Amino acid sequence: MSYRYRDDLSVADVAFEAEGTSLEELFTSAWDATLRVMIENPSALDSKSRKSIAIEDQSVDLLLYNFLQELIYYKDAESLLLRLEHCRIDAGRTPAKLEALAAGETIDSKRHHLGVDVKAVTFHRFSLKKEGKLWRTTVVLDV
Amino acid sequence: MVPSGCIKINDTLWEIPRTYKEGMQVPARIYASKRLLDSMDSSVFEQVTNVATLPGIAGYSFCMPDGHSGYGFPIGGMAAFDTETGVISPGGIGFDINCGMRLVATSLTWEEVQPRVQQIVDRLFVRIPAGVGGKGSMKLSQSEFRTLSEQGMKWCLKKGYAIQEDLDRTEENGCVRQADASKVSERAVERGYKQIGTLGSGNHYLEIQVARPENIFDQKIARAYGIDRPNQVVLMFHCGSRGFGHQIATDYLQRFLKVMQSRYGIPVRDRQLACAPFASQEGQDYYKAMNCAINMSFVNRQVILHRIREVFSEIFGKDPMELGLHQIYDVTHNTAKVERHRIDGKKRKLLVHRKGATRAFAAGMGGIPSEYRKVGQPVIIGGSMETGSYLLAGVQSGEQSFYTTAHGSGRTMGRNQAKKQFRGQDLEKRLRERGIYIRCASYAGLAEEAGAAYKDIDEVVLATEAAGLSRAVAKLIPVGNIKG
Fold it and tell me: Among partner residues B69, B134, B254, which is closest to A11 by beta-carbon distance?
């Protein structure tokens, strides 16, 4: 699982590239990269609250787009920052389906080293493709 | 890199002709000095010319001097579309709908405020939540939140969070019509209804500033705006519609992508430039939902002003009006609004998208407060926390850009690069040594907002003046700052 931030792709906001040997690995890396923009020490998040995520979409890239929106939604709606515990994707059918479990806790500025608020996942330079054995994605977040 | 086909019209205006890209309906025009133009990344030129291909665009696709790469439109982008044949695009407004600036006067001088500036900043930092996922102290039901999103600052007036003068001195009087909360998703409401009275993070801030005599460039207009004494203290803040607006933009971007090509035959050059005809069901639904976010954002800034008045009143032991806490103006820089402008000698009804661009109506025009009608609409341009910000005025020659000017200084350095180059704690110390007392929700976020990460705001303002888009009235120097 890996990701890296790319300043050269977005000056004003945050861009990252993530990769994985499976779609599950790729989605987990992208989730971690998005979470890390908002909290510098995600390991400080205790698993006090759990959320199940179930999404389906016509394409795998839109599945990722909507998956990352879930993290942003819970941050605003319930002040929750969530680490991904488990993720399963069925891309062999249309619509593609995702089931995931995320756990975390309410934002606590004393223990959590906060970064910047992510407003949205954008379609700017957004891509998801398989290159050889690796799945790769490029994501730009509006902050 | 500036495209080779870019033509110099004059020292602060550049044009990319229609021949640059297939499908361009109009040329693109960029307002900038040569140095600012050269500092723009290549995405700006691609995006401003992509906008020029959209159906119903009128005149030109514009970019302001603080332009930089955005999503769909560049930040600093402005385009007007015919209301019958043109489109509406969330990418031309931004995710943070009605992100804007508010400037508030006081009758206090820096000499009076200086002994208490730390106390004021500390108290404001407690009363006005900032940072990731910040929640406000106002308890609202989702139903009440939907009501305020339709009523805007009229709701604040009814609830005692505003005085009539605040509404009079806000763009659109703090309430756009044709806002319909039934067009807004549950998720948007769930993301926003606890966030009234919060700043957010990134480049959002609340600043205490001083208008020094040597930084007043137009005494007459400054006096008309209420800046009338040496070293007068003012407050400026920058924030938007929080999760509510972000979700509305996200929802409709996806809805438009489903119908843009298939139903309306509009080619998708960039998914972030998704759009629908303004007159279509989808276009009208988004317009009414977007107007709810505009109203919510006005309410957000109004509640922040209410908190500022409470804090000053508590610290100085006087009524806010005795302390001269009068709003100067509130401008939005992420919107689409129906306006009438002259094109080829004829007045046309246009949907004007401004994304990181500010409306700047000239003296004598309707839609600005009666007390400012002789001098033009106030324009508030936020700079970095180290360099200061500007108050400007709309001018008659602004007609060339449908009375639009810049909104800020514009970033030149990526956020990760800024974090590598600066440490938040060091920056805080350096600013304190320079007399700027700062409180922040995130040291990482503070480092990202270092002054060196932004364009030279003086040059941006000079370019807007030289181009005839607005006139500089005063430069305002920070002495206290709260960052998300």
Answer: B69
Q: How far apart are CA B76 and CA B37, in angstroms?
A: 13
Q: Enumerate residues 27 to 66 of chain A having a beta carbon within 8 A of any beta carbon in chain B.
A: 38-40, 62
In B412-451, the DSSP E strands lie at: 437-440
Residue B133 to residue A124, Cβ atoms within 8 A: no
Give every strand in the sheet of A96-106, ordered side by side: A49-57, A96-106, A80-90
Share of chain A above pLDDT 70, in %: 99
Nearest-CB residue to A117 (from B70, B202, B416): B202
Q: How many CB atoms lie within 10 A of CB A22?
A: 13
Identify the CA nearest to B40 among candidates B402, B356, B477, B391: B356
| Interface mutation vs chain B, best among A72, A78, A114, most B CBs within 10 Å | A114
**Count of beta carbons in the 10 Å neighbourhood of residue B75:** 27
Chain A residue numbers touching B482 (CB-CB < 8 A): none
pTM of the predicted structure, to 2 decimals: 0.97
Nearest CA in chain A to B414: A11
Q: Which residues of B250-276 are buried (b: 16+ CB within 10 A; e: fewer)?
A: bbbbbbbbebbeeebebeebbbbbbbb
pLDDT in tens, B22-51: 999 999 999 999 999 999 989 999 999 999
Nearest CB neighbour to B95, from listed A7, A11, A142? A142
Q: Catalytic annotation on B407?
A: yes
Q: State which amino acid sits at residue B218.
A: D
Residue B63 has a CB neighbour count (10 Å cut-off) of 34
A69 touches chain B (CB under 8 A): yes
Q: Which residues of A touch B271 (CB under 8 A)?
A: 123, 126
Residue B217: pLDDT band (50, 70, 90) is very high
The per-residue pLDDT for range B273-304, each reduced to its tens digit, is 999 999 999 999 999 999 999 999 999 999 99
**Distance (Å) from the C-alpha of residue A117 to the closest C-alpha of chain B?**
5
B129-188 pLDDT, tens per residue? 999 988 998 999 999 999 999 999 999 999 999 999 999 999 999 999 999 999 999 999
Of A10, A13, A123, A15, whose CA–CA distance to B44 is shortest?
A10
Contact A46, A105 (CB under 8 A): yes
Backbone angles phi, psi at A15, to 5 degrees: -115, 145
Residues in chain A with CB shorter than 8 Å from the CB of B242 are 76
Contacts of A124 in chain B (CB under 8 A): 70-72, 270, 272
- Interface confidence (ipTM) of the complex: 0.95
Percent share of chain B, pLDDT over 90: 91
Kindly list the residues from chain B whose CB atom is less than 8 angstroms away from the CB atom of residue A111: none
Q: How far apart are CA B330 and CA B279, in angstroms?
A: 29
CB atoms within 10 A of CB B44: 26
Q: A14-65: per-residue pLDDT in tens?
A: 999 999 999 999 999 999 999 999 999 999 999 999 999 999 999 999 999 9
> B39-95: per-residue pLDDT in tens?
998 999 999 999 999 999 999 999 999 999 999 999 999 999 999 999 999 999 999
Strand, coil or helix: B196: coil
